[in-house]
Write a structure and sequence with these properties.
This protein is mainly α. It has 42 helices and four strands. The strands form two sheets. The chain has a two-stranded antiparallel sheet with strand order 1-2. The chain has a two-stranded antiparallel ribbon with strand order 3-4. Helix 12 runs antiparallel to helix 13, helix 20 crosses helix 26 and helix 40 packs across helix 41. The protein is globular, with a radius of gyration of 32 Å. It starts with a helix and ends with a helix. This is Conditional loss-of-growth 1.
Length: 948
């Protein structure tokens, strides 16, 4: 219990550190820090800072600002308990910061920091709980003498929500399996923060019912049914094993030998050791080359001092124009352009300091001049120049916003004015950036590098404060967001996931209701469907599925004019059921190919088959109307049909082909002209047309003769060798849809390995054609890998994404490396190793690190299973060459394979080499390196060729 005297001492110290006039003494600052560092008094100090502001009747702005700055300086180092963090957050929320920009910035910083601290505390608690559970499970396994494992199909998830500032964007994060109780107190006028998981309850009114009835639906989920039993009559047939409780078995496929990667995060320490060794070796090489090899420093044009210490560049308008002309004309002379750019940035910022609005307008117009250049390098540089101008604008204010000991109040006020000036400059430049991006939309910019430069610049402005600025996102025109997303090469990385979040928040910016006018600017349901099909990111699929479901509901509402209360309840229940069946992750396959009468089969599955045996879902199905459920699914079917619908003239030509059973040269010429068109809509028509032709060929195979069949097949195969990347992409897309078509026809033969082998052989043949053409387009390479992985992989568990795992890639490759996906050895054995090898050799290591690593793991597994595969990739030479790569994951898995392969080839020789290595390690007292295969393999490399 705190004594009055002790409390008075802290009160006095707080007052001395927040005086409106003058600065605190050194003794008072040291005394306050002493109490902050004491766990017994840290909460009291923060409490007294809050009371200091509350008890000040004059509400002196200087006292408020200094109190806030006192919290800001100490909160990172001296952390109070959870209750005090919540009090501080509430305190910051109530302060009026409209009159002071520096105060507003400090409050935002504090509230963001508090949110992170609260999440870290929650994460630690959850980690401890999981560790305890894991230990208990291990004990159970020992006591039950290794009983058969029964893995949970899902995990209920919960996260702490923090109240963010109104100006902070709140964006949907990944998971649809979030606890329904979680956001009961969340503000309906805000969307979720980037750190929070996606919660469908925060969307439009059609998701409020479950929020009001959180106990209606149990937490446990039955995911296996839709995934295996009913997915196009997929290659797996899951049945309950007699007397095995909830254990499931897969008929026809031996999953006992399934390949499951040990979670890659468990190797982080070993990979860090590899990186340290590589860094030392690089430094050693530089030393051997001598001082001449070191990079020469460029002469600085001017020192980066605060603008108060700089002198303006005194140039006439003509001279300033000459500087900018030098930027445009010296695109190939990078050093001259760099020098001219630095001078130009200084000129522009001088105009801002002088508040010369006419000159500012003229100088910003010069960015558009660069953007109108015919050279893509110049158009990209326009965004780089704008970005660097914004960075240098920060020199217009001091780094510290708290006055030093000898500072006077006048200097402090000047700092605040400078900060406001910087914010005004940045806002002004952001408006120019939006104008530049919209010009790219209008001119239909094709160059990926230009869009990438614009995207990098935009992300800096949106996330410049450490969080996504809600107002900036809402101010973006939907067509800009569409252009950025369309230009994004990889549909599975973190950047794409962020762009989808921005898209969703822009769509739901109006009271969390789907903005259909905004949706039309994006391209309507077709654009959402295209994104939904093209990504394997779970979070992106979850977000996009909610949009599609809202579109479905809106279409039904329009048909019925007005929905009844009972129908609204049905909408909530159907959404929850689809969510629990894993529909957001499985429906993309239906969007690529929807089998005939599939919704009838699906409805029967829900109301007549396995779901009736699952107690968790029985409560839902009993309340559902079968006819209304079918109506919802049928509307999904309408969206799919609309996406692939042929234009009238092409549909007429297709109907004529079906009627006459003849594929004419005219038909093939039409398809060729569509595929060769630069118009994306024409390309889609061409792909859809050709797929329908190929489908007819396979449907009528062995029953009736189609005239000119060989010409059609030859035309299709030639696409794999086309010079145009989008034609090769169309070939891959049709191949994937044909694979799904074949899967749909094996409904009565699922689990039949020979049938599966035939489908994989078809896939192998088509994908091998693309590799023979030495495909190097990364979009096509990653798509080719997606086709294989989506067919042979099995999800075994759902990742619970923690609050500090924002950089986690949730695509199929990352999940495989984390052990959440397994691949049956029987299926991997059939896939051509050349497909994995080609993708591994040609994918970019930085952009597709996880995909490359997954390829290497699968190559290694095939080499373990089959010596001919090992020889086909180049044997030990191939894996030895990987030991010099810069990606530590590649190096680790390569060395791990070499070690395993040596043991497999000759166990005696391997044991002798390892014993010698161990003896050396013990002498040098570095026995910990034995755990890392990289060190062992490096040591014995010379002996591999001679002994093995």
């Amino acid at each position: 219990m705190t004594t009055p005297v002790y409390l008075q001492i802290i009160q006095k110290l707080v007052q001395e550190n927040t005086l409106p006039d003058g600065s605190p003494t050194t003794d008072s600052m040291i005394g306050l820090k002493k109490h902050l560092s004491d766990p017994k008094s840290v909460n009291i100090v923060y409490e007294q800072i809050i009371e200091r502001v509350k008890n000040d009747k004059t509400q002196n702005p200087t006292i408020i600002l200094r109190s806030v700055q006192l919290i800001k300086m100490n909160l990172t180092k001296y952390r109070p308990n959870k209750e005090m963090l919540l009090k501080l957050d509430d305190f910051c929320k109530k302060i009026d910061s409209k009159k002071s920009a520096s105060l507003a910035k400090s409050l935002k910083y504090i509230r963001t920091l508090i949110a992170r601290l609260l999440k870290k505390r929650h994460s630690k608690t959850r980690t401890k709980t999981r560790t305890k559970t894991r230990k208990e499970k291990e004990k159970e396994k020992e006591n039950t003498n290794h009983k058969e494992k029964s893995k949970s199909k899902s995990k209920s998830k919960s996260k702490s929500n923090s109240n963010q500032n109104q100006n902070q964007i709140q964006i949907q994060n990944s998971n649809l399996n979030q606890n329904q109780n979680q956001n009961q107190n969340s503000n309906q006028n805000q969307l979720q923060t980037f750190e929070n998981q996606l919660n469908p309850n925060l969307f439009a009114n059609n998701y409020l019912y479950l929020k009001a009835n959180p106990n209606l639906l149990p937490n446990s989920i039955y995911l296996g049914s839709l995934l295996y039993e009913n997915n196009f009559g997929g290659q797996f047939n899951v049945k309950k094993a007699n007397g095995a409780g909830n254990k499931e078995i897969i008929i026809g496929i031996d999953t006992s030998k399934a390949i499951q990667s040990q979670p890659i995060h468990t190797f982080q320490e070993k990979m860090s050791e590899i990186m340290k060794i590589q860094k030392k070796e690089e430094e050693k090489k530089l030393e051997e080359k001598g001082a001449h090899a070191k990079r020469k420093k460029q002469i600085q044009l001017f020192q980066y001092k605060n603008y108060s210490e700089q002198e303006p560049i005194d140039l006439t308008k003509e001279e300033a124009q000459q500087v900018f002309d030098c930027i445009i004309q010296s695109s190939e002379d990078l050093q001259t352009r760099d020098m001219a750019s630095k001078i130009w940035i200084k000129i522009v910022l001088d105009f801002y300091v002088k508040k010369d609005q006419a000159s500012i307008t003229r100088s910003l117009a010069s960015f558009l001049e660069l953007l109108n250049s015919e050279k893509p390098e110049d158009r990209s540089y326009a965004f780089s120049l704008l970005f660097n101008t914004c960075i240098h604008a920060n020199l217009m204010t001091d780094a510290a916003f708290i006055p030093s000991k000898n500072a006077n109040s006048e200097k402090f006020e000047n700092q605040e004015k400078n900060l406001n000036q910087v914010l005004n400059v940045q806002d002004n430049l952001f408006e120019k950036l939006k104008e530049m991006l919209y010009i790219l939309v209008i001119k239909n910019e094709k160059d990926q590098k230009v869009w990438k430069a614009g995207l990098n610049c935009l992300l800096f402005f949106i996330f410049g404060k450490g969080y996504a600025d809600k107002n900036k996102v809402i101010s973006l025109h939907p067509k800009i967001i569409r252009g950025l997303i369309t230009s994004c090469l990889s549909r599975d990385n973190i950047v794409f996931r962020q762009l989808v979040r921005i898209l969703v928040n822009r769509l739901y910016s109006n009271n969390n209701q789907l903005d259909f006018r905004c949706l039309q600017h994006y391209g309507g349901s077709n654009f959402i469907a295209e994104l939904y099909m093209s990504t394997s990111s779970e979070e992106a699929r979850d977000n996009l599925f909610v949009i599609l479901y809202d579109i479905v509901v809106a279409k039904i509402s329009k048909k019925k004019i007005k929905l009844s209360t009972e129908e609204y309840e049905q909408i909530e229940l159907i959404f929850e059921l689809l969510k629990r069946l894993g529909a957001p992750q499985l429906f993309p396959q239906l969007f690529k190919f929807l089998p005939d009468h599939y919704w009838d089969i699906f409805t029967s599955f829900v109301f007549e088959q396995q779901l009736q045996q699952v107690q968790d879902l029985e409560a839902i199905t009993q309340k559902l109307s079968r006819s209304f459920f079918f109506e919802i699914l049928s509307e999904f079917g309408e969206i799919i049909s609309q996406y692939w619908k042929l234009e009238h003239e092409f549909q007429k030509e297709l109907n004529n082909t079906i009627k006459t059973s003849e594929i004419s040269h005219q038909t093939l010429d039409i398809i060729k002209s569509l595929l060769e068109s630069e118009d994306l809509n024409d390309q889609k028509n061409g792909e859809s047309f050709l797929f329908e032709i190929m489908k007819i060929l396979y449907k009528t195979k062995g029953r009736s003769k189609i005239e000119n069949k060989k010409a059609a097949v030859s035309f299709f195969n030639k696409l794999a060798f086309s010079n145009e990347p989008h034609n090769r992409y169309a070939f891959l897309s049709i191949t994937q849809r044909l694979v799904l078509f074949h899967k749909s026809r094996m409904l009565k033969q699922r689990g039949n390995l020979p049938v599966i082998t035939a489908i994989i052989k078809f896939m192998n043949d088509n994908l091998t054609k693309v590799t023979q053409n030495t495909e190097q387009n990364e979009r096509n390479l990653i798509f080719m890998l997606d086709i294989v992985m989506s067919f042979i992989s099995i999800n075994i568990e759902k990742k619970t994404q923690g609050p500090n795992e924002e950089n986690y890639c949730d695509n199929v490759y990352s999940q495989f490396l984390e052990g959440q996906i397994v691949i049956p050895s029987d299926l991997l054995h059939i896939v051509n190793i050349g497909i994995f090898l080609h993708c591994f050799n040609h994918l970019n290591s930085k952009r597709y690190s996880d995909a490359k690593t997954a390829c290497l793991v699968l190559i290694a597994e095939k080499c373990k299973l089959n010596n001919s595969s090992f020889e086909s990739v180049g044997g030990f030479d191939f894996f030895k060459s990987l030991l010099t790569k810069k990606d530590p994951k590649i190096v680790y898995f390569a060395s791990s394979f070499i070690q395993d392969k040596l043991k497999q080839l000759n166990h005696e020789k391997y044991s002798k080499l390892f014993s010698d290595y161990l003896a050396k390690a013990q002498k040098t007292k570095e026995t910990q390196i034995i755990k890392n295969p990289y060190f062992f393999v490096r040591q014995i490399l010379p002996d591999i060729s001679s002994n093995f």
